[in-house]
Predict the 3D structure of the following.
Amino acid sequence: MAENDNFSTLADIEANANLLPSGINVESLEMLDLGDSHGKTIYYLVKGGNHAQFGNYGEQKGDGTASISGAAQQEEFFQALKILMINNGFEL
């Protein structure tokens, strides 16, 4: 999730957490060394990011304003996914 995401807000995610597997809150990339987290929801916040920058489709009306670049947001998200995949036995 992203700090300035006005479409998938933290409040929405918290309100629907009962629909997801049990979760782990992760506050930094260093904390992603969780070992096997298979079957769990990982909550990770990209500080300064917004909804549109998870993709490359440009600004969306109503979205928050990002305070980091799209490239920085995507790289941070990629690193988080990479760590989680390695921790869960995927070879990259």
Q: What stands out?
A: The longest helix spans residues 70-87. The chain has one domain: 10-87. The CA atoms of residues 35 and 87 lie 5 Å apart. The first strand starts at residue 23 and ends at 26.
